Amino acid sequence: MFQFKHIKFWFVFLLLSFFLFFIIWGDQGFIDLLKLKNEYQQLFQYSATIEQENVNLHRLIKRLKHDPEYVERIARTELGMIRKDETILQFSRRKP
């Protein structure tokens, strides 16, 4: 009788250990759940960043379409363009 209870205890213990192992480390287990939560959080942050960048680009497009002064400023600063009636003067710096 004692031996049967002993075997039964070890059988239940091993069975529970087996299930616990697969719940934690098995496929779609707790460890995978933590990894998926982390990946979800990263993707959510990336999505928010992309969304903000998209809003900024829409503002820039709207401004480029409807604000000629802004277009002129960009053309002058980034492209080095000038008006037809302007002349560029360049001075060389001499060291004393």
Please outline the helices and strands.
Elements: H1 2-25, H2 30-66, H3 68-79
Q: Would you give an account of this structure?
A:
With 96 residues, this protein is mostly helical. Helices cover 76% and strands 0% of the residues. It is rod-shaped. The N and C termini lie far apart (108 Å). The relative contact order is 0.04.
Radius of gyration from the CA trace?
34 Å
Distance between the termini: 108 Å
Main sheet summary? none
Share in β-strands = under 5%
Our count of domains comes out at 1
Q: Spell the H/E element sequence.
A: HHH
Count of beta strands = 0
Average pLDDT taken over every residue? 90
Which stretches are poorly predicted, pLDDT < 50 over at least 5 residues?
none
Concise synopsis of the structure shown:
With 96 residues, this protein is an all-alpha fold. Helix content is 76%, strand content 0%.
Keywords summarizing the entry:
0% strand, 3 helices, 96 residues
